[in-house]
Design brief:
This protein is mostly beta strands. It is 0% helix and 50% strand. It has no helices and 11 strands. Strand 5 and strand 6 form a beta hairpin. It is globular, with a radius of gyration of 13 Å.
Length: 119
């Protein structure tokens, strides 16, 4: 099974940027996998999908991040990136990447990467 490892989080001030990376142990789009998504979970909140990219490179974003976040990849190193600009305190969360089939995310959740935005 392909494993995904997230990295790139950190502590930044509001208005700054971060670039998250999701490195896969093998080819991402195999079999029934249709897309890769970045999800986040803030303390006390449900996990939410913030960005998705499919096999054709088409992307979707949550309204809360549209215009600020950009998902790209996978590149030649099987890495999917999430460029996050104009960060806000409400973007503070643990960020995870997951492969998706047409039924939704599949596989176990990784450790994620912590993003903390101070005001």
């Amino acid at each position: 099974q392909v494993q995904l490892v997230e990295s790139g989080g950190g502590l930044v001030q509001a208005g700054e940027s971060l670039r998250l990376s999701c490195v896969a142990s093998g080819s991402i789009f195999v079999g029934v996998v249709e897309a890769v998504g970045w999800h986040r979970q803030a303390p006390g909140m449900q996990r939410e999908l913030v960005a998705l990219i499919d096999r054709d490179g088409d992307t979707k974003y949550a309204n809360s991040v549209k215009g600020r976040f950009t998902i790209s990849g996978p590149d030649a190193r099987n890495t999917v990136h999430l460029q996050m600009n104009e960060l806000k305190p409400e973007d503070t969360a643990v960020y995870y990447c997951k492969r998706h089939t047409e039924l939704g995310p599949v596989g176990s959740w990784g450790q994620g990467t912590q993003v903390t935005v101070s005001s």
